[in-house]
Design brief:
The protein contains seven helices and ten strands. It is an alpha/beta fold. Helix 1 crosses helix 6 and helix 3 runs antiparallel to helix 6. It starts with a strand and ends with a strand. The structure holds zinc ion.
């Protein structure tokens, strides 16, 4: 059972960066909530906790201590950047880090950036290292993400709820990939009885079968069930 610790950047008395009618603490709350819901809905084999469920005030050391005390396997701290730049960047500690930490950064960075790019062009500010307390004081692989800038043209995306949701889900998928979490079995959809009248011809490729006989057999079965089929 893998243990995942989420950190919603800032909170309570500390709003984090504020601009364009947005507060960093509210955005990090939303992104992490979306991530946690997505993990719960799609994967098994894990437990997850979060540094703050609501708008509590926490020091950086408290955040790291809680993850350490629980024995988390992975720690992800979610933030929004400020300083009038553009784009996405991720951080690991700039001291000694394990290869696992680098692997976590690689998979998260790739997953989040690819997802953000479905909303338009996004600047990749790179995989970085810094002496951040939550990264320095946590004992497990830990990554901090800076998800666009609150005080630049990026704010337009940060006001888009669909964007926050997708970015949260990308965090979740990255962690799931890193930990190799099993996906939940999807409930089988009821089998719609498609009639051949839709005019669709089923093309059975011989190459997909070990020998032609198997392909011929499938074509026969399709025909018996009323589906036009042919070998290609
Ligand atoms: Zn922050």
């Amino acid at each position: 059972m893998s243990k995942i610790y989420w950190d919603k950047g800032h909170g309570g008395d500390d709003p984090g960066a504020v601009a364009n009618g947005l507060q960093e603490k509210n955005l990090t709350h939303k992104i992490v909530e979306y991530a946690m819901v997505y993990l719960e809905a799609n994967y098994t084999g894990f437990e997850q906790r979060v540094t703050r469920t609501g708008d509590q005030t926490l020091t950086l050391s408290q955040r790291a201590d809680m993850a350490n005390a629980w024995g988390a396997d992975v720690f992800v701290s979610v933030h929004i950047n400020a300083g009038k730049g553009n784009g996405f960047e991720s951080y690991v500690y700039n001291g000694g880090v394990s290869s696992q930490t680098i692997a976590l950064q690689n998979v998260l960075h790739g997953e989040i950036l690819a997802t953000m790019k479905t909303f338009g062009s996004i600047t990749d500010r790179g995989k970085k290292r810094a002496n951040y307390a939550v990264l320095r004081e946590t004992k497990m692989p830990a990554v901090l993400t800076e998800n666009l800038f609150i005080d630049s043209s990026d704010a337009k995306l940060l006001k888009n709820e669909e964007f926050l949701k997708d970015v949260g889900e990308a965090h979740a998928r990255g962690i799931a990939k890193f930990l190799g979490l099993p996906q939940k079995a999807k409930t089988a959809p009821s089998q719609p009885q498609q009639k051949s009248s839709d005019g669709k011809l089923y093309r059975v490729q011989v190459g997909a079968f070990s020998d032609r006989k198997n392909a011929e057999q499938l074509v026969e079965e399709l025909k018996q069930n009323g589906y036009p089929a042919t070998i290609v």
